[in-house]
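Late entry, written up from scratch paper. The run itself happened at the end of the previous shift, but nothing got recorded in the book at the time, so transcribing now.
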Amino acid sequence: MKLSIVIVNYNVEHFLEQCLFSVRKAIANIEAEVFVVDNNSVDGSLKMLADKFPEVKVIANKDNVGFSRANNQAIRISTGEYVLLLNPDTVVEDDTFTKTIEFMDSHPDAGGLGVKMVDGKGRFLPESKRGLPTPATAFYKMFGLTKLFPHSKRFARYYLGHLDNDEINEVEILAGAFMLMRRETLDKCGLLDETFFMYGEDIDLSYRITLAGYKNYYYPKTRIIHYKGESTKKTSVNYVLVFYKAMEIFVRKHFADKGAKTFSFFINLAIYFKAFLALLSQFFSKAVQPLLDTILGYAGLAFIGYFWGNTMVYEGDGTYPITLFAIILPIYLLIWLVTSYFSGGYDKPYKVAPAVGGVFLGSLLILILYALLPESLRFSRALILLGMIWVSAEMSLTRWIGYLLKRPNFQYGKNAKKRFLVIGSEQETNRVEQLLQSTSIKPDFIGAISPFENQELPDDFLGTLKQVPEIIQIYKINEIIFCSKDISHQLIIDKMEEWQSSLDYKIAPEDTLSIIGSNSINTRGDLYTIDIKTINTNSNKRKKRLFDLLSSSLGIILWVFLVFFINKPFAFLKNCFKVLSGKYSWIGYCELEDSDANRRLPKIKKGIFDPSANMSRVGLSKEEKEHLNLMYARDYSLSKDINFFFRALRKS
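Output as recorded:
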C-alpha cells in the first residue's frame, strides 16, 4: 500500500462529503486506503459514509476522543508507505497525492510535507508554512508583532513570512490540515502526543520529526482549499484558551531548560489578555448596533423633548420636568427597541425595513399606553410622533452608513438578494439551479457558464470561462458556484485566485444536496442545502418563544376560568410553568428512539405537545413521525404552533 489517508470527523457531514469526493478523484491511480475516524458525530455523517463511500474504512468512536487519539487509532492499523493526516474541511486537487508522493520518493531526507493552502475565496493561508514556536516566536505571534511585520525574518517567523509562498522550502512545522509523513519516520519518532486534545499536536509531531533527523518541506506545486475555521470560531474564548494552552504544553515539553517557567508566566498573561479581547469582540459584534441605536436614539429624544418643551409648550420659559427625561423617554425608547428586535431589526444582516416597521408597531403600543397613563405623565402626543420619526431616521441612517462602508452584516435594498453564476455542464447546472431554488436564499439571478471551450453552448448559457470576468461586470454577479463533476479542482482553485476576491465561491459536489463554501475564517463555512431549517431562523425562534411566553402567561392568569373547559386543568397549569421557565416549548418534535432523522433536524426545545396532535388517529409509525417532524421543521409557521396547541388541548 502506497498511501494511507486519515480523516478525523466531528459533525461536519457536508464538508466531509465534499472532501471525500475530491480524495476519490485524487487516488484514482494510486494504491491507497482511506480511513475516517468519527468522534461520535450526531449529524448523519456515518450514514452518509455508508451510503456514498463504502470503500472508506470507518472507525466509529462512541465518544469524542480528541484529534490526536483519533488519528492514532487509524495510523496504528494503516499499512501505507506514507500516511496523510487530512482535515475534513479541505478539498484536494486531482493530482495532489501524485505530486506530493513523487516529491517524497525523490527526497529520502523528507520526513513530512505540507502543501500550499488557500481559503474559500482562493486567498493564501499563511499557516501553510510555519516556523518552530520558540518562546520568542510565540511571544511575537501572541502580542501582534507577526501581523505588524508580516515579512520580517525575525518577527514573522511563526509563519515564515520571509519565504516565497510559491517556492519549495524546508520548514520546521507542518499544518495538521494536510500532513504527509513517511511511515518509517513515524516508526522512529512516534505518533501524535495524546496529551494534546486539540491544537498543538501538529507542532509537536513536526518538531519530533526534525529531532529524528528528517526534514519537513513546504511544497506549493499543488494546492488544497482549507475552509479554515469550520469547527471553531477564531474569535471565541474557547479557541483562545485551548490553542494557547496547547502552545504552553509544547513549550513546557520541549523547552523546559530554556526559561519555560518565565515564558509560562508571559504565555498565561497573553492567554487571559487574548481571552479578554475575544470577549470584547463577541460583545461588540452583538451589541454595537443596539448600543448605537440606544445612545443616538436617546440623544435625539432628549433634544426633541427639550426643544419642544422650551419653544412650543413653555414658550422660552423652561422645559418639561425631569420625569420626562429620566423615565418617560427611556420607556418610549425601550419599547421602540424591543418591538424592532421582535420585528427582525437586529437580525444579521441588519436591514432598514424590519427596524422601521418595529418602530411603527412600538409607536402604536406607546399610544395605547399613553391613553392609560395618569394626566401628570401625559406630556404630548407630538413627542411620540417626533420621537418615532427620529428613531426611524436614526436606525435607517446607521444601517445605510454601515452598508456604504461595506461593513459585514449590513444590507440595503436589493443587495440582500444573491446573483449567481453556475459553472458546469447543462445537466449539472440545472441540478444546482433546482437546489438553489429549494433553499431559503431566494436567488435574484442564476446564470449558467460552460467550462468546455470547444463545445457548442446550450441556448440558455451566458458564455464560457474566458468570458466570466465580463459577465461578472455586466450581470453584477456576487457568487460563483463550480460543479466539481465537470471541472477539475486545479481549475477551480486557479479561477478562484484569478477572479475578484470580492466574489464568494462555492463548490457543488456531484450527486449531493449541498453546496459548500466559506466567506470568512471567523465563521462556519456557508452551506446551501435543501431548506429544512425554517424553524431555526432568528425570526421564527422569536415568534415561537413569544407565543410560548404569551400563551403560558395567559394560561396561568386565566386558569381559574379555564378549569371548566380543559380536561386536565392541573396538568395544564404545571405545563404552563414548564413552558414559561424556558425548559419546554408547547410544540416540539414527535419523540423517536434512536432516530438519525431527528438528530439531523434543527435543535429545538422538547415539546409538551407535538405535530401528531393534528392527526385524527393515534399509533403512528416511526416513518410517519419522522415525516411529520421534517414537515414541521421545514414549513414552520406561528399559525402551525397555534393550531397544534388548541387541537392538543381539546384532545388532552
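The CA atoms of residues 91 and 225 lie 5 Å apart.
(Scratch paper discarded after transcription.)
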